[in-house]
Amino acid sequence: MTIPVNPNPEEGDGTLSKKAQKKLAKDAQKAAKKTEKAAAQVQPEKDEVDVSVGRYGNLPMIRSSRGGEFERLYGRSFAHVKELDAKLANKDVWVRVRLQTSRAKGKQCFVVLREQSSTIQGILAVSDKISKQFVKFASTINKESILDVFASLTTVPKKIESCTQSDVELNIKELWVVSSAKPQLPLLVEDAARPVNEAEQEGLNIKVNQDTRLDNRILDLRTPANQAIYRLEAGVCRLFRDILTKNGFVEIHTPKMISAASEGGANVFTVSYFKGSAYLAQSPQLYKQMAIAADFDKVFTVGAVFRAEDSNTHRHLTEFVGLDLEMAFKYHYHEVMKVIGDLFTEIFKGLRDRFRDEIEAVKQQYGMEPFKFLDPPLILNFPDGVAMLREAGVQIGDEDDLSTPDEKLLGRLVKAKYDTDFYILDKYPLAVRPFYTMPSPDNPKYSNSYDMFMRGEEILSGAQRIHDADLLTERAKHHGVDLEKIKAYVDAFRYGCPPHAGGGIGLERVVMLYLGLDNIRKTSMFPRDPKRLTP
Amino acid sequence: MASSMYRMKPLFDPYAKIEIMTDMYRMKNLHDHDARSDPVSTEIVSNGSAEDDDFVKFLEGRQEELLKRLDKLRQLLSEPIVTPGASPKKIPTSNQGSKMTVQAVDLVKLGLSQDVVFNVNPAHPPHSLLGLAKLWSGTLDFNVTCHTHSSVRNLPKPAAELQEKLAALAPGKAPACLNIRLVWKEVDGDACFVISPLKSVPISGEVNFLRFLNSCVAGKLGDVEQTILDDRLDSCHAISVATVPKSELRSHHQNVFEGLKTSKWLSGDQPSILDVACWSLKSRDGEKSAAQEEAEEAIASRRGGGVADKTTAKEMEDAEIEDAGMEDAGKGNAGMEDAAIRRGPTLMATRSAQARSDLLEG
């Protein structure tokens, strides 16, 4: 588009130069000609009888109204795109789908229709029942609009590789727009769903970057991989609940607004609480332990956890879903470690067996390695892990904590030797664990604590907690913790408490590592990090 | 020759007369065989002054030195191969087969300081572990922890049964203990043994795993015995690999059971690693009957020839059971196990898996 520029600005609009006047006149003439031409083109179409009237158009907004043209719509049964295959060939079906792409070609129009992760090709060709106007209407519908389509299913001679339903296509007979999308989309679902490696190989280099995806999350979430990720995440949550409930655990809900920081205190969010201030819970730890002291024996909780850490990494969020459990045991904390280890094995098995399609969808886009594990899980002692690292040339002290690169390297060493992506590292040095961790009775340098790893990254940190108020006070003093601040915590153990141990995992991190994804934002539906509070 | 090529001047004339110089000793042609055997010619060569004698002595000394060095090298090469990080072990030169050396097995020296991973195809449970535990009881204990890899969905019954038996292995009083992580996993072939992914390559095949452990624990035999043992173990391995053609299978069977012709055990007068390997193989698949029968027949006929009177397979079996009984009295519980191993070729094929396991537990 060109904007006519006034060549003599001093003269003002009133007195245009001759040249400008000429130009305006020319433009007007041009426009008139154009409308004339357009009218001439439309004329013969208008004259033609539209044989498809009543088979296409925009549906009025669905407001659950009765009567009128809606009456005939009630009771209509819809098929899901994923069910459409060669068995249903030559049958007529209704589907409610999104328009993924449309391509008009002369008297034909090809469309790709999508319902959740499934796609199917549709074809509309001018015939004695399909008018030109119908085809034209179809080709002008905006992408991502929601449609009701009535069509007969036909088998195709050659497989359609670009669609999930590759054996069949829809011969469209009716087409109604239920909800139209804006003509301009911030990102195309097709682009967002493109496999990461393919983009590098071919000329098609349209990549949607992470921030664009997160800014337009609802469009991004429509990709098959994202559909799969969040279904799988729901699966992890459900398996966690089901397996623990089966094992006699009780689900509890802990407060998210607390009066004092439970751990340390540097990384908590402060919120105003009437005249004073409160903190957002960074762990349900204290409440889990109180539930144990209150004789609930085995408890778990699923809820939001907040961390005010200003770390912009691929694996930190400021708000995430915590899956925490705590369990009383009889004589050895390995009773609890075994329960947690078996819980993971069960979850992995459940995902492997029940979410095959979802895992495949993620693999399609991100090309992940299948998750491998051992049953029962591999348990290594911390000194053994250190020995493996030393063998690989890492210099590390007996009582040093593992740095993140060390953890990754150890993960790779374990994978190479045992071929497992999940393992447990037991008996951490006491010095690197919080004050409430029970020291090891065999060696005062070590503690009754364990970390669990998936693909070389820590996902769970747990331990036997000190359940004796006096020992707890002593250990707190040793760590230089202000006793006043943890008084409520210590007092919880003054009226007798069974020995107990537990741990907590981050849901997003587990899903990320199970699927071998590179960023935790891919597994948080609406992620919160130091730089993002919306959407 | 093609006429389209350049004509070249000949490089030499094959028919030209060679002029032999006359200012040197005349020597007989060394390459002429008859001439070499002629004593006269040597006379001519060695016919020299005192200076020449010195030279010959010098040469002789040099030759001696070279021979010595060669000997040294040969000795060095004949030592058993040890894993990296381990110092070379003294070679037990006794002819007593796999009979245990008295000194304790130093696993750290052998590079087995950490636990080792034994990946096993669940279709081929490694019964040899049970055999080893008994064969080396008092020398080396085994602590076997079993895991199932995610590539295996359901553990077959024989594998699960073996797992139970391995878990029931009582900790012995041996000075050394090898921690084995047995992982049921879909591997190529029957098994894959991993010591350290950084320092060594995986060992493929159950028989080779046994061979390796044997070389670590029992040391090396004399050159000839070791070669024979290795050859038979190779045959054992070939039988365990499904890819070996049927036609070759028979000769492998014959090779493995060759030892029974002259001695009580497959290799010498003591139960050895070969017996364990063979027994494990037979326990693994009772259904591989055709080839097995062939082997049995072969042995029976050979036995018939070797021992003066012709005994049937059945009689042989009975005799062996008696032997086993006698050993029982001497060796206690281990004898039964050994007997089971020993009867491998004949009894193992005919008895059901259940009977075998009963025997084992007994």
Q: Kindly report how far apart the N and C termini of chain A lie.
A: 35 Å
β-sheet strand percentage of chain A: 15-25%
Quaternary class: heterodimer
Overall body shape of chain A? elongated
Tally of helical segments of chain B: 14
Mean pLDDT over the full residue set of chain A: 88
Find the count of extended strands of chain B (DSSP E, 2+ residues): 5
Instruction: Tell me the structural class of chain A.
Output: alpha+beta
Work out the strand percent of chain B.
5-15%
The assigned CATH architecture of the largest domain in chain A is 2-Layer Sandwich
Largest interface, counted by CB within 8 Å of the partner chain's CB:
A-B, 23 and 18 residues
**Distance linking N and C termini of chain B:** 85 Å
Tally of extended strands of chain A? 18
Indicate the low-confidence ranges of chain A by residue numbers: 5-13
Would you write up a description of this structure?
- Chain B: Its main location: cytoplasm.
- Chain B: This is AIMP2 thioredoxin-like domain-containing protein.
- Chain B: Pfam families: Thioredoxin_16 (PF18569).
- Chain B: Keywords: Cytoplasm, Protein biosynthesis.
- Chain B: It is found in: Cytoplasm.
- The complex is a heterodimer of chains A (about 525) and B (about 350).
- Chain A is built from 15 helices and 18 strands.
- Chain A has helices spanning about 20-45, 130-140, 190, 195-200, 210-215, 215-220, 225-245, 285-295, 335-355, 355-365, 380-390, 405-420, 470-480, 485-490, 505-515, and strands spanning about 55-60, 90-105, 110-115, 120-125, 145-155, 170-180, 250, 255-260, 270-275, 275-280, 300-305, 320-330, 375, 380, 420-425, 450-455, 455-465, 500-505.
- In chain A, the strands form three sheets. In chain A, strands 7-11-12-18-17-16-15-14 form an eight-stranded mixed β-sheet, sandwiched between helices. Chain A has a five-stranded mixed β-barrel with strand order 2-3-4-6-5.
- Chain A has about 525 residues and is an alpha+beta fold.
- Helices cover about 50% and strands about 10% of the residues of chain B.
- Chain B has 14 helices and five strands.
- Chain B has helices at about 35, 40-45, 50-80, 130-135, 155-165, 205-215, 225-240, 245-255, 275-285, 290-305, 315-330, 335-340, 345-350, 355-360; strands spanning about 115-120, 140-150, 175-185, 190-195, 205.
- Chain B has a five-stranded mixed β-sheet with strand order 2-3-1-4-5.
- In chain B, a hairpin with an 8-residue loop joins strand 4 (about 190-195) and strand 5.
- Chain B is elongated and about 90 Å long.
- Chain B starts with about 30 loop residues before the first helix and ends with a helix.
- The chains are: A alpha+beta (about 525), B alpha/beta (about 350).
- The interface of A and B includes residues 370, 392 and 417 of A.
